[in-house]
Description:
Layout: H1 3-19, E1 21-29, E2 35-36, E3 42-47, H2 63-70, E4 76-80, E5 87-90, E6 113-116, H3 117-131, E7 134-139, E8 146-147, E9 155-156, H4 162-174, E10 180-183, H5 198-215, E11 224-230, H6 234-244, E12 251-256, H7 267-271, H8 274-278, H9 281-294, E13 300-305, H10 322-335, E14 340-343, E15 354-355, E16 360-361, H11 363-374, E17 375-383, E18 390-397, E19 403-409, E20 415-423, E21 427-429, E22 435-437, E23 441-442, E24 449-456, E25 466-468, E26 471-472, E27 487-489, E28 495-497, E29 501-507
Parallel strand pairs: 1-20, 3-4, 3-14, 4-7, 5-6, 7-10, 10-11, 11-12, 12-13, 13-14
Antiparallel strand pairs: 1-17, 2-17, 8-9, 15-16, 17-18, 18-19, 19-29, 20-23, 20-28, 21-22, 24-25, 24-27, 24-29, 25-26
Helix pairs in contact: 2-3, 5-6, 6-9, 10-11
Amino acid sequence: MDFKNVVLSIILFSLLSLSLAENVKVVIQGANSIARTDDNFICATMDWWPTEKAGLFDLDLKTSLANAIKAFNPLRIKVGGSLQDQVVYDVGRVKKCHNFEKRKNGLFGFSEGCLSMTRWDKLNKKLFMKSGAKITFGLNALIGRKKSNIGKGLWVGDWKSQNAREFMNYSISKGYKIDSYEFGNELCGSGIGAKVEAEQYGKDVIALKNLVKELYPDLETQPKILGPNGFYDEKWFNTFLKVSGHGVVDAITHHIYNLGPADDQNPITKIQDPFYLNQVAQIYENVSKVVKKFGPLSGAWVSGAGEALDNSHRDVSPSFADGFWYLDQLGMASTFNYKVFCRQTFIGGNYALFDATTSTPNPDYYSALLWHRLMGSNVLFVTQKADPNLRVYAHCANKKPGISLLFINLSKDRTSNVTLLNDQKTVRRNLKSRVVVRPNIEFKGYQNREEYHLTPLDGDIQSNFVLLNDVPLNPLDSVDIPAMDPKLVDASSPISVAPHSIVFVTIRDFNALACA
């Protein structure tokens, strides 16, 4: 190929690249926040699984695991999961303490399991206290009940609180801090494996609230009460909250697994489909209405979330592509005033943030860490109408001043060059008392932007390795989490969001009144 043809090829390639880029105007309404999350919005679960799934009974409490949690300073950890309603606590009147055993007729195919206080001590001293984790503890809500002969999967009778009482007393005596207690797992509505009627659940939650108030009289340190920790069922939720009454449940908790079962053959297509991702917004809206109606003080939580049920997609959850789903859920839930979002799981199973085999983070771990560090609790209204494949979320910056933005580009071949508009929406009155709305103003920054560009290794979204600003994120020695520093970008240039990338941006000189 002669020089002339080489030059022509370069020009054609440049023109093609330009044709696959689009200019996008993103409007940020910064005068007022539309929602507010908890300061510890990011949460991850740790389950009472058997050995082969890295459950808490046998989990190796490595320094690397504690360091991975400690990096969030703090991370909310929710202890419980599918088997929590089969866990008894080896304290007080419990005579024998055995681990789970496979049992054909048992709930989820397992027998009852027992948490020894020796193991509970180790979990607290070597993991929870060492890492500074904020603990939500899932209580067994089936103790004292019996299977009904009438309804399939229905358990009847009053909850017996004695074992929970003795467990709480033991934890208090040891100085173990519990931020909140969650009552049962997936017992609401039709239930998963087992179910409890809403009226009975409501009465039992009142009993739990009274127990916690008795044992933790100091309002400053009194754990919150959460429930029902299952899939949303409007009739069941409404009945439960009517029975329990105002001021008993501190947060309504529910699960989200919105990409279908683990054997779905097409999860990657769903993850990249903005219209499919939008469907779950209806659940968030419905739960938000229940919160407004019954008024739990802490609002709504997603207490268990994975992109798919039944241990999730083995080849998708640990990959970069899962971040499209995960971060979009974080962004969407926050706009509906959700307070906490618990990822299933921190470690164990196919959907973990931290790989139990390699003792290294999966890509979603880094996404969660960046959200926690950058996105503040005040949520801003943000819109763009150019491209549905570009997902955008805006919050006040976690550390003042300024705002932080999250961009998710679902497109595999189109770059978005983003210009920001400041919709001040400050309504003022002139001398004739007419309302005057100030127009959108293109934001012209003077300070360098702080940008964090996450991309998959070799451009493969099913890769388990992620790059930050073109540098691979690998733990230095399998113990320490690598530094995650931004690149500083001239404020006069558009924000460039490459195809199949995730970008966090913090702008310190963006004047949003809600963030002042």
